[in-house]
Amino acid sequence: MFDFRPVGFLIGLLLVGLGLSMLIPLVVDLLLANGHWTAFAASGILTIVVGSALVLSCMNGVGDGLTIKQTFVLTTGVFSILPVFGALPFLFGATGARFVDAFFEAMSGLTTTGSTVISGIDDLPAGLLLWRGMLQWIGGIGIIIVAMAFLPLLRVGGMQLFRSDSYDSLGTILPRVAEITRSISLIYLMLTFACFLAYSIVGLSWLDSAVHAMTTIATGGFANHDDSFSSLGAGAEYAGAGFMVLSALPFIRYVQLLNGSARPILVDSQIRSFLIFCAVIVGTLGMWQFGVNNENGEEAFRRSLFNGISILTGTGYVSDNYASWGSFPVTVFFLIGLVGGCAGSTSCSIKIFRFQLLFASIKAQVNSIHSPHGIFTPRYEGHKIPEDVISSVMAFFVMFLATLGVVAMLLAFTGLDAMASISGAAAALANIGPGLGDPIGPTGNFSSLSDFAKWLLAAAMLIGRLELMAVFAIVSSWFWKG
Length: 482
Known about the structure:
It is built from 20 helices and 2 strands. 64% of the residues lie in helices and 1% in strands.
């Protein structure tokens, strides 16, 4: 019999924390006397009451750790239930949103996707703008902990490659999370504060600096303006691009750097491959803008840098309508959104390391065809890649493409054209944010989509953020047997 009590207890604690965090935008709205604080008061009280009830009803079942099945349910449950309560300020507040829209916005926030159904963002109360940023900031640190503490133990999509010997105990998952959380939280706070200072220095208001710092470090992409970064100036674009890159690197390397060891971050092949790929993409887009679209040299570089890095890392900010740059850049933007940053970062999508493992496996297969009597072993950072890791990565690629196809076809049934259907599915599953074409392109939003399409995309955001297998596992019949 599956024991839900440890899972319910932890989700209850997180709900209480989420409810308490609503005090921050509540105080902001109170100080600004805009009258919206009541929405956060009602939302916070309801969230804390439900969370407390869960804690009290489940606390008698709490042990020293979680089983593998409980960990699967917890990771999926957290990112399924928290958006319900994170949606309440949108439901009760100034947006006047229906539940489907409020849930979509909250799911997009906590999964750091960045797609939005809200029009007139510039006119939202300060507290609600801050709440959108906080949702992504909370989701960003949450996904780092999930990626570093849970997914390697759950052997999801090759993430077992990053299992640490010092944490290699299935019976002590909770202590493992506590230790990782303490280490990562300090780095996360430091980067957020540094980003806030950078945005302030280039002239952004305190609210824009705070919200954009949170959504940049979370690689989430929620902006305070309908035109995203288009009107924030060149300085904000350069600052944003720099911190998006920093946030797409493995946070464990920052922990090691803070502990006095710089070598790991310098020799990490995943970081090296990611930075090289960034340079190639920015250079390619810049040359296209300069040579084909006759854009000013500095502007061509800046717009290519900012928008290219934003889509590659899955942040989703835009400073220009890149859909009008031409068919080649549009194709590039679609493809790089499926790459993503490094494992163990706030970035999303497939991740650089999986492509490294895929290419290593392909290389070994090609060599074996060329020299049938030779023995060729795929390697990653000089070490032999275990068979189970290769199998997990291949399964991930197959499931990712299959899920992308299914979501795209279902979106097409709702009346979206091929471009919007495919790019919308990719934007949700890879947690990128904007799609391509009307109405979900870089200058549009998802508000005009049908309710079915919004629920479908919200589900795709969840599936993609948890690396597919963590969600698919708990909906399979074999998971609940035994």
